[in-house]
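Please, structure for the following, as tokens.
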Amino acid sequence: MRPQNKVVALVVVTIITALAAVWLNLTSASPEVALAGGNTDAATEPPFDASEGVAPTAFYDPPDPLPDQPPGTVLRAEEISDAPEGAAAWRLLYLSVDNAGNPIAISGLYVEPTTPPAEGNRFPLVGFAHGTTGVGRECGMSQAPFEDKTPGNEYWRTLIGPMVAAGNAVFATDYEGMGAPGNYTYLLRKQAFDVLDGMRAALFFRPQTLDALNLAVLGHSEGGYVALATADQAADYAPELAIKGAVSQAPGGIPPIPAALNALLGSTGDSGPTPRSGYVTDLSQSWIQTYPDISSPEDWYTEVGATEIPAAAELCQGAQLAALDQPFHTYFNRSVPVELSRIPAMEQPMYNTSAIPILIQQGSEDTSVVPQVSRAMAVQGCALGNLVDYQEFPNDVHRSVQYTSRTQYLEWLAARFTGQPVDDSCRGW
């Protein structure tokens, strides 16, 4: 596809996404409602809300200065003793880069099955990108993944554990600033580097166990965005990684249009606390730290918010909602300057034609990431010339799609690892 056609396609899809985003941000669902969904398993899982963050230990403190080594270098590893039967797990501290390209240490969780693969085989490696759990140091995947109500346990139950049970090794990055110190990161393209360098680290850590020719990426919500950004940038950033497919579930994102951006700060329809307070806390703090020349606290916060939001940003998702217990506009302004739309314009998940096949999965009843947003991202991927398979699940909501879609994404990844042709929804669009 010619470059000018790529630009036109991106603009068209951005408009579609903006219209969907207005609906997205005028609706909200409590965690209790969202958990039930259209899937029995999702409704009956023990409740968890990523509320109990775990303070990082000395393991997460990087050496100073950092060694002059390439991204993906393992700085240290620590076995996790309480891994459940059938799994072996470690924390890894590894080198990556921040948004400016400077070296930084990032932490993550590596898990593999204890049952050896078939004779002569090795485990495929899946790089995992988690959804919104917060942006603070206590909110990563690796601190206490097997303890109830922790951020890591939320995604161990829903996606990481099932991947391991299916015979895959998984590396789940904490993202920059979540575990090891760093800037807040939320819906930034550079989070793809956290995933890719984490996969490099896992291959370095377990070279005799992992199949370096069969790699994949999986992400949900915020992580669904990151999975798309990873597929988009892998060829340039980590061309040596043989990534065979990327699964993106309910991918979040912000269209680069002022009206859509300001819909984030519109009326929530709630007279009390709302989950949107947590999402906008994470987003605003990320943008303020990453783009201080464009975004400032005054752009986002009321006088009360300027005092309370920085402290709330240290908390994990469920605890944020408990702390921000007043109506949304107690903390946040009703609009932001038009100039802030420059940031999502630089941070869309897909700009390039990628050779990595993409599977996008979406619940039709999702009110956190509405189906129109995911459909628009699928159309965007198709317009760029990517191989995109789009699957929508009737009656499922934001969390329950993780359960309902399990058979489909596991079969889709297994087909990529065995070199089968890709179903391409683009032919119908």
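The radius of gyration is 20 Å. Residues 1-37 have pLDDT under 50 and may be disordered.
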